[in-house]
TrEMBL record:
<keyword id="KW-0812">Transmembrane</keyword>
<keyword id="KW-1133">Transmembrane helix</keyword>
<feature type="transmembrane region" description="Helical">
    <location>
        <begin position="12"/>
        <end position="31"/>
    </location>
</feature>
<keyword id="KW-0472">Membrane</keyword>
<protein>
    <submittedName>
        <fullName>Uncharacterized protein</fullName>
    </submittedName>
</protein>
Length: 33
């Protein structure tokens, strides 16, 4: 049960981080082009 909750919370924590990472890569591509 605890392992399930841990993975769920990790996914929630990774979601905003993934968005920031995506935006960073997107801006880099825009600057390079």
């Amino acid at each position: 049960m605890k392992k399930m909750q841990n993975t769920r919370s990790q996914k929630k924590n990774l979601q905003p981080y993934g968005m920031i990472l995506f935006l960073a890569i997107y801006t880099v591509i825009l600057i390079n082009s």
